[in-house]
Write a structure and sequence with these properties.
With about 350 residues, the protein is of the alpha+beta class. It is about 30% helix and about 15% strand. The protein has 11 helices and 12 strands. The strands form 4 sheets. Strands 9-10-11-1-2-12 form a 6-stranded mixed sheet, with helices on both faces. A two-stranded antiparallel ribbon has the order 3-6. Strand 7 and strand 8 form a beta hairpin. The longest helix is centred in the C-terminal third of the chain and has 23 residues. The chain is globular.
Amino acid sequence: MCSIAFAPAGQAIAKSSSKKQTVSASKSKKYSARVSSQYSVNPEKTKGMRPVKLHSHARKAARPTVDAEMFDSFQGKSLNNGNLSIASTKALVMNQNTHEIIYSKNLDTPTPIASVTKLMTAMVVLDAKLNLNEEVSITEMDVDYLKGTSSRLPVGTTMTRADLLNLALIASENRAASALATHYPGGKARFIQEMNAKAASLGMMNTHFEDSTGLTSNNVSTAMDLAKMVHAAYQYPLIRQITTTSDYDLYVNSRRQPIHFHNTNALVRDSSNSSWEIGLSKTGYISEAGRCLVMQATIAGEPLIMVLLDSVGKLTRIGDAKRIKKWMEHNYSTLTSQSAGSGIVLTGLSMSKSLNEEAN
């Protein structure tokens, strides 16, 4: 599977961040120097850009009062002159085809990624070309003694490796993801080695894995690295198919009725009744990581990769995704048509005066 080298993160960062507490003047100059010369930027289209002032929402700090629109409303245009506001602590929106950075926020800050990990777990299993119809069992090694999460898969439950993949990616079943590593040739230790080797091959230099589930906070990555992982996972038709499946029924042991599992991403469950065109999806949550969501989706005719990390509250990551969709639908077609025939290549920096960028 070939990897892809995304455009340098600095290309859409240095000129639009004015938060002193985030970027020093010297660091800003460093990012500016990294702007890729392959993009043409029209100064007349970018000189009016202003950063959006986002509310601080550090989990452990005393939180100030935040406006309901930003966290719980799904409107694509905020009250702040139509700027796109994202509540997730780390975020990245990128055009999958052109690698334009449309929006980023703390994109190079390492953070726990919870069950987003399971996308890498699935890739390692599929790369090994293991028999997906082989039956394997849940063992005591697959029980979560770290976080104490529950499971509807008792020790001794037998199912195919394909079932394990479906449960791990659709329902984020931890015992299923653990069993995929337990039954890997060489066991869990070898499986983790392969996860980290795969990350390195994809250029995910700020990423580290210690388990196949994401229950450990030592599984860390960045928004930029996860965009690379989502792009790589999208190349696997089976991962695309599974992660966009809304429900999965499994007969366990001698039960007469199947156990019903549903997709942890509400946008996938509701996709039949909405305008979402989702090509890949994975959620994640542990207390150290906050609510996480990564997706590939086609919006306003453009294939996007969205990475939303460390969101506060159950609705925020979904709200952020809906804000991105509405903002793109409202802005993108007009902006691209204005640049048609001008010879200008739109980038995340030049896309709109209402773009927000907060660099590390």
